[in-house]
Write a structure and sequence with these properties.
With about 130 residues, the chain is an all-alpha fold. Helices cover about 70% and strands about 0% of the residues. The protein has helices spanning about 1-5, 15-35, 65-125.
């Protein structure tokens, strides 16, 4: 009984009281900020995330294997490179044909020039 009548005098340090008050103030500010943010959040309709019911196994469509997709892409790039190389070879073939005809023309011009010089020399001697 004596203990019940006796009051305990416990002194809480000022620093502890200050920390508790700062924590309460921080909590109050946080609660106000969250209350301001929550109305701005979009509402998420969870039913949109439900998977559709699959009745048969044939309805399941798996995505393609990434290795297969990479291989197909590599073959497509390879085909495009070969097409470009074929086009370049075609252009080079036409250029060589033009050079060949130009070479023949040059040979004829050179032959006629030499023939003209010879004719001029022969006629100038007479």
């Amino acid at each position: 009984m004596e203990n019940e009548n006796k009051k305990l005098n416990i002194e809480i340090p000022e620093s502890t009281l200050r920390i508790v008050k700062e924590a309460q103030e921080s909590y109050r500010r946080l609660a106000e900020n969250i209350a301001n943010i929550i109305p701005k959040l979009p509402k998420i309709d969870i039913l949109k995330f439900q998977l559709p019911e699959i009745k048969t196994f044939e309805e399941i469509k798996l995505p393609p294997n990434l290795d297969i997709v990479r291989e197909q892409n590599a073959w497509e790039r390879h085909k495009e490179i070969l097409d470009v190389e074929n086009a370049v070879l075609g252009i080079q073939t036409e250029i060589l044909k033009e050079q060949k005809s130009t070479t023949k023309s040059t040979q004829w011009i050179l032959f006629l020039t030499i023939l003209g010089i010879i004719a001029t020399v022969l006629f100038s001697l007479k």
